[in-house]
């Protein structure tokens, strides 16, 4: 993710103050998010369900 | 002390102390005073406490003493002190989450788990250090210093329940509450050489605990022995209609499992976690092999099993955790970013960079991962795997903290919700604890206590205490 995109996304998320005061932290946070997403195998089955909300009962 | 057989009160376990109090061999006041003296001597080096609630604890101990003398025991923990991680509410005390953000936030009521501990007779000793909001890491830019490891105070005690781990291991109190969203009970248990359990999701109520991630948060007991852990879980488990994630019922009777032999128990060894996915330090690997062989000698049947990779489990945990945490912290991060420590600020802000689709994809993958762990547990009673891939690193080396922090195998079971227990596997050549993790079927914490107790008995790890004085 390039610097311009990071700034755009940060501003969209309302992080203008953090961007001004802690630009390195904003950049590190964005880069960490990108790196984490790359490690997940995206389910290919269109019918694959998300995990349902945790609730009481057997089998979660 | 009315009985000369009780010595070194600070090393008394929960069950031993409760038994001595119930049989008029020990006064709760005497026990508490011994612990307070140890806290006064050692906590300046350990920083386990954010707030020691000395006078109210003494008052509670005096009441417990009167009740015990009158033969009125509140429950199985009567008169036994407990430390509470400072993200968990204790009525009248601040719940700071170790953060400037909540420095002045005072709890109006006890968290459900604290209510249950008090109902069982426990005495709340105070609030314990954590990583900021249970995510930050050991930080020196917060209103309170980070807790330190009693095995070597230059080292990290693990986190985020760091004060809980350090204090239990150092004999400041025999039990503590921690929380675990990505391993935060089991990490300090591993670094400090104690027993830490992340129960099945929903077994212990989260009401009154400051959330980090709604679908990953668990509350768990931290003790020096497996039997004490079972006793503490017995006290805090149970349905809470006011926690939407609370399970309908617990199976209970955990202590009954403790002396069950492990002969013919089917143990799945998840070797690829520490051999392939994140190669562990050789001493950690040797410790795990030793645990495996010991269980085999006790009659357990051990076979290798395959689960999804640790890297992917960790990534799914991060996306879900940071997305849910962003929903909680977004407003403060926008308005008061400077009031967070650097580590928490960086970790929490990542949540701003995931899309709704990223979150749902992680939750879809989560369901597949749950199915894969369930499949492994259909043919095995428990799983055995690494907890930490390294002994605790130095606390003042940010690069080492950054490198070793993710090298762990705990997040998989926050993702899946299965119960998981971490405990000591031995000591490294540098005298720091090594660790092992056992994982069970949903609501079968009894099987974890069974196998953990077998290892504890065979190895004697419960008799090892840090040399701090």
Description:
The complex is a heterodimer of chains A (60) and B (469). The longest helix of chain A has 15 residues, at 23-37. Chain A is an all-alpha fold. Chain A starts with a helix and ends in a 23-residue tail after the last helix. Helices cover 52% and strands 0% of the residues of chain A. Chain A has a domain at 3-37. By secondary structure, chain B is α/β, with parallel strands linked by helices. Chain B has one domain (9-463): Amidase signature (AS) domain (Amidase signature (AS) enzymes, Alpha-Beta Complex). Helices cover 39% and strands 13% of the residues of chain B. Chain B is built from 15 helices and eleven strands. An eleven-stranded mixed sheet of chain B has the order 1-3-2-4-6-5-10-11-9-7-8, with helices on both faces. Chain B is globular. The model of chain B has no long low-confidence stretch (mean pLDDT 96). Chain A binds chain B through residues 1, 6, 9-10, 13-18, 21-22, 25-26, 28-30, 32-34, 36-43, 48-60, and chain B through 200-202, 215, 239, 244-248, 311-312, 314-316, 318-319, 322, 330, 333-335, 337-338, 342, 345-354, 358, 360-368, 370, 417, 442.
Provide a compact summary of the structure:
The complex is a heterodimer of chains A (60) and B (469). Chain A has 60 residues and is mainly α. Chain A contains 3 helices and no strands.
Number of helices of chain B: 15
Low-confidence stretches of chain A: none
Average pLDDT rating of chain B = 96
The CATH H-level superfamily of chain B is Amidase signature (AS) domain
Q: Determine the number of helices of chain A (DSSP H or I, runs of at least 4 residues).
A: 3
């Amino acid at each position: 993710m390039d610097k311009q995109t990071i700034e755009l996304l940060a501003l969209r998320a309302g992080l203008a103050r953090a961007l001004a005061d802690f630009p390195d932290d904003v950049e590190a946070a964005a880069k960490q998010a990108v790196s984490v997403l790359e490690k997940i195998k995206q389910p290919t089955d269109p019918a694959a369900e998300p995990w349902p909300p945790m609730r009481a009962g057997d089998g979660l | 002390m009315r009985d000369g057989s009780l010595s070194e009160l600070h090393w008394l376990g929960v069950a031993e102390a409760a038994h001595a109090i119930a049989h008029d061999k020990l006064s709760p006041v005497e026990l508490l005073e011994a612990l307070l003296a140890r806290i006064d001597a050692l906590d300046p080096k350990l920083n386990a406490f954010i707030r020691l609630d000395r006078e109210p604890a003494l008052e509670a101990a005096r009441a417990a003493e009167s009740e015990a003398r009158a033969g009125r025991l509140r429950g199985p923990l009567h008169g036994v002190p407990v430390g509470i991680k400072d993200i968990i509410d204790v009525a009248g005390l601040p719940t700071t989450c170790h953060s400037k953000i909540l420095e002045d936030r005072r709890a109006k009521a006890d968290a459900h788990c604290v209510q249950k501990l008090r109902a069982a007779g426990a005495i709340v000793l105070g609030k314990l250090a954590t990583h900021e909001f249970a995510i930050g890491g050991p930080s020196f830019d917060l209103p309170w210093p980070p807790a330190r490891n009693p095995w070597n105070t230059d080292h990290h005690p693990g986190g985020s329940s760091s004060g809980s781990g350090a204090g239990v291991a150092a004999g400041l109190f025999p039990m503590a509450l921690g929380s675990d969203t990505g391993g935060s009970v089991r990490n300090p248990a591993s670094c400090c050489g104690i027993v830490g359990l992340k129960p099945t999701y929903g077994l212990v109520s989260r009401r009154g605990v400051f959330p980090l991630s709604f679908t990953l948060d668990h509350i768990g007991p931290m003790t020096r022995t497996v039997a004490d852990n079972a006793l503490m879980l017995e006290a805090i488990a149970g349905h809470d209609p006011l926690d939407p994630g609370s399970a309908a019922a617990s199976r209970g009777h955990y202590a009954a499992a403790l002396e069950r032999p492990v002969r013919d128990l089917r143990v799945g060894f998840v070797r690829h976690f520490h051999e392939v996915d994140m190669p562990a330090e050789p001493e950690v690997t040797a410790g795990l092999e030793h645990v495996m062989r010991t269980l085999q000698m006790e009659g357990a049947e051990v076979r290798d099993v395959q689960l999804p990779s640790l890297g992917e489990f960790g990534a799914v945990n991060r996306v879900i955790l940071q997305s849910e945490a962003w929903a909680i912290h977004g407003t403060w991060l926008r308005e008061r970013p400077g009031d967070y420590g650097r580590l928490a600020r960086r970790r929490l802000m990542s949540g701003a960079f995931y899309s709704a689709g990223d979150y749902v994809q992680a939750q879809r993958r989560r369901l597949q991962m749950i199915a894969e762990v369930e499949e492994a547990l259909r043919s095995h009673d428990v799983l055995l795997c690494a907890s930490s891939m390294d002994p605790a690193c130095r606390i003042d080396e940010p690069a080492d903290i950054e490198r070793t922090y993710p090298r762990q195998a705990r997040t998989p079971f926050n993702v899946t919700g299965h119960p998981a227990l971490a405990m000591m596997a031995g000591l490294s050549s540098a005298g720091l604890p090594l660790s092992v993790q056992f994982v069970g079927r949903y609501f079968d914490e009894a099987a974890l206590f069974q196998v953990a107790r077998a290892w504890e008995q065979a190895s004697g790890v419960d008799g090892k205490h840090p040399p701090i004085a």
